[in-house]
């Protein structure tokens, strides 16, 4: 992808050069107006730090009115969960994890404390990646006590059961942290090295080191950092069925499975597949606290990345709702 300047945007004009000017004027004006409308709508959002939108092979909007700009890493918060899901896909494709139905008790039995909640050994990789672990969540009001504990994995697996394994969606970073630790156990390498080898290298992006728990496991589902341009590369990967450039980075069947709704968020109502939110309008979305977004619309050939103020909430009825109106409105209007 070409280097993008801070606070600049590029419009790709379409239409045959040989066509008479009068025949081309109105379509071109409409496209120019659509990008201008998107730019105005995006810059009117005070929490927004950066936005990149690509249609086909052309980046048509690249703006960073606030924050760290387009080429400096920002904390992507829970967008990390969606990248973790891609790493699970690579482990299954390589036979390091037998399948989505593999049990935690078989993949990583040593992670399970002696006083774990009954049934956690039977949790499948599918239960973990779809946030259907059945245990009380460690996010929201429970987050501080969890990350202050001496063993994050054990703490998550001791939480009281509030639903059956594979039942309703319970948003919990503890669940994805257990998944990350299971991946480390199964592959014999760190989550950071997995991310760099299987996503960073093929996408040509840098994935800096990030937070580890007291046992040395990298945070599975939070605190990763990427530049907005790197986030856009991930969005393109999902848009293009796991391909990036000439490389098939993620198996196509994993991307297809990721787009199948398995549960729904009790907060936003969005569907949820293998670590990715799914909108009824065709978007596949990674969502992080504060309004961090990686999104792709395969049917419309669109990919986007948004970073926002990571210290402010982005509730479904608030700022995240405004972001959804942006991508369902002005962004989709570009296709």
TrEMBL record:
Keywords: Hydrolase. GO terms for molecular function: hydrolase activity. It comes from the Bacteria. Gene3D superfamilies: DD-peptidase/beta-lactamase superfamily (3.40.710.10). Residues 52-315 form the Beta-lactamase-related domain. This is Serine hydrolase. It comes from Paragemmobacter ruber.
